[in-house]
């Protein structure tokens, strides 16, 4: 078993650290935020993620994981240091690598023995080469350092399970030593390892995410056409899914993809292509369709209603998908400002994301409109003139069609996640609009 340090305790770093500890490695997670470190030591996860707290408590109690702000003590004698810090999107679509650079320099100035530095963060192709050079430039002691690329494929909401039971582990290395060490570190996971060079590994991450984003945008594009020609996107998806070359996953049309990855990684790859004088037309199309898709429900409702001004508007679901409290690039963030601008009185419900949303949009008057956060779906629906569904939380899916009819002033529902059967909503007396299906 190896001594591993992990830089950054966001989704990528913390989940990786906890899973390394779970399979028996000795792990120290490093973060600059002292409050966060104190919380993690007491077993509190800074992110909402199924199964994570249990594994944090178990492995902390057994002494296999610790958390610290003292990067020096964590890095100096580590066999491998995994970098899982953020690479946020910049206004031009490129990735901001400043956090990676900071960690790389700290590593160079700290390590006292041969060490493998592993970049898990999603980074533009060629970054690992630069990280290696950067570390060499700042290295203080006479030790060997290799850099490997090891992109992460976990999805929020199922991060622990995705890591412990991943479909593949990608390792990108430029030396036998790095390849062998990383393979040994991952051996206890019993997951197929695909070993390629560093640039290919970096590209696999973008190519995979952007392919999935493309798949979603394609289905959304087809869904919009389905509405115009009288076809049903869900039936179309089922028909398509029997072809194994297409598969049955990621065919759900909806209100566009959100989260911290697809929006960022599509723009980043588009940027990388442009930097090389190449136009990545397919990925650009995925970005464009997604931008437009986030507004389709609002556009539909705007055509149906004279105004939102003074209307009680129920919003069910704020996060970018269920199982997370993350709001990044969520459809709610694209629509709620528009509704507030139009004077809507919004009553918003989300089982875990409401607090985060309230930090961005405090409860009360907002321009001509207002926003109120409710703990019960019924409180949002009571006397509402219109309801928007932005996230397919189980609690929201469990609301019966009759409930909209009985509670709302006007049972008018715009569903961005196609969670109801069209006929059942109509039979219950609900005026129901969804994505890619005939009203
Ligand atoms: C995504 C990928 O699924 C992971 O494999 C990847 O590791 C991760 O990005 C990353 O790069 O870190 P994530 O963003 O957590 O994971 O969430 P997804 O479950 O992929 O959903 C992304 C968005 O696509 C959500 O807004 C979801 O509602 C939407 N989506 C997904 C659809 O609209 N339709 C679908 O059929 C599937």
UniProtKB/TrEMBL annotation:
Q: Does the keyword Oxidoreductase apply?
A: yes
UDP-glucose/GDP-mannose dehydrogenase C-terminal domain: from which residue to which, for each copy? 314-422
- Recorded metabolic or biological pathway in which this protein acts: Nucleotide-sugar biosynthesis; UDP-alpha-D-glucuronate biosynthesis; UDP-alpha-D-glucuronate from UDP-alpha-D-glucose: step 1/1
- Give the E.C. number(s): 1.1.1.22
User: Keywords, A to Z?
Assistant: NAD, Oxidoreductase
Origin superkingdom: Bacteria
Give a single Pfam family match.
UDPG_MGDP_dh_N
Read off the SMART domains from this record.
UDPG_MGDP_dh_C (SM00984)
- InterPro entries listed in its UniProt record: 6-PGluconate_DH-like_C_sf, NAD(P)-bd_dom_sf, UDP-Glc/GDP-Man, UDP-Glc/GDP-Man_DH_C, UDP-Glc/GDP-Man_DH_C_sf, UDP-Glc/GDP-Man_DH_dimer, UDP-Glc/GDP-Man_DH_N, UDPglc_DH_bac
Major enzyme class: oxidoreductase
Q: Which residues form the signal peptide?
A: none
What is the catalytic activity of this protein? UDP-alpha-D-glucose + 2 NAD(+) + H2O = UDP-alpha-D-glucuronate + 2 NADH + 3 H(+)
Q: Which family does it belong to?
A: Belongs to the UDP-glucose/GDP-mannose dehydrogenase family.
Q: Which PANTHER family match?
A: UDP-GLUCOSE 6-DEHYDROGENASE TUAD (PTHR43750)
| Name the UniProt record assigns to this protein | UDP-glucose 6-dehydrogenase
Question: Per the UniProt entry, what species is this protein from, by scientific name?
Answer: Cohnella kolymensis
């Amino acid at each position: 078993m190896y001594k591993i340090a992990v830089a950054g305790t966001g989704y990528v770093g913390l989940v990786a650290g906890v899973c390394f500890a779970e399979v028996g490695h000795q792990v120290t997670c490093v973060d600059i935020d002292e409050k966060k470190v104190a919380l993690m030591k007491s077993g509190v996860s800074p992110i909402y993620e199924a199964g994570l707290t249990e594994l944090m408590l178990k492995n902390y109690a057994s002494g296999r994981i610790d958390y610290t702000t003292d990067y020096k003590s964590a890095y100096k004698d580590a066999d491998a240091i995994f970098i899982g810090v953020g690479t946020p999107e910049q206004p031009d679509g490129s990735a901001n690598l400043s956090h990676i650079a900071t960690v790389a320099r700290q590593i160079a100035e700290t390590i006292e023995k041969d060490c493998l530095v592993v970049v898990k963060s999603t980074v533009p192709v060629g970054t690992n080469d630069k990280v290696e050079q950067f570390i060499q430039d700042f290295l203080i002691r006479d030790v060997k350092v290799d850099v490997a690329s090891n992109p992460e494929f976990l999805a929020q909401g199922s991060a622990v399970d995705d890591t412990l039971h991943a479909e593949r582990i990608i390792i990108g290395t430029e030396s036998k030593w790095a390849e062998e060490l990383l393979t040994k570190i991952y051996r206890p996971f019993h997951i197929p390892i695909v070993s390629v060079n560093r640039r290919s590994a970096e590209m696999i991450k973008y190519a995979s995410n952007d392919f999935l984003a493309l798949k979603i945008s394609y289905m959304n594009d087809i869904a919009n056409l389905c509405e115009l020609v009288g076809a049903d996107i869900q039936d179309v998806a089922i028909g398509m899914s029997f072809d194994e070359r297409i598969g049955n996953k990621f065919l759900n049309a909806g209100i566009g993809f959100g989260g911290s990855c697809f929006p960022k990684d599509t723009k980043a790859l588009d940027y990388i292509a442009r930097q090389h004088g190449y136009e990545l037309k397919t990925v650009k199309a995925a970005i464009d369709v997604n931008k437009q898709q986030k507004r389709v429900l609002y556009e539909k409702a705007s055509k149906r209603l004279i105004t939102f001004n003074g209307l009680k508007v129920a919003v069910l679901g704020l996060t970018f998908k269920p199982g997370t409290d993350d709001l990044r690039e969520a459809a709610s963030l694209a629509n709620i400002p528009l509704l507030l601008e139009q004077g809507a009185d919004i009553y918003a419900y989300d089982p875990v994301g409401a607090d985060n949303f309230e930090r961005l949009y405090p409860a009360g008057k907002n321009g001509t409109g207002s926003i109120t956060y409710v703990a019960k779906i019924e409180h949002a629906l009571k006397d509402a003139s219109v309801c928007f569904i932005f996230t397919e939380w189980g609690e929201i899916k469990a609301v019966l069609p009759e409930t909209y009819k009985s509670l709302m002033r006007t049972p008018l529902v715009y569903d961005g996640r196609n969670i109801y059967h069209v006929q059942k909503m109509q039979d219950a007396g609900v005026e129901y609009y969804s994505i890619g299906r005939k009203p």
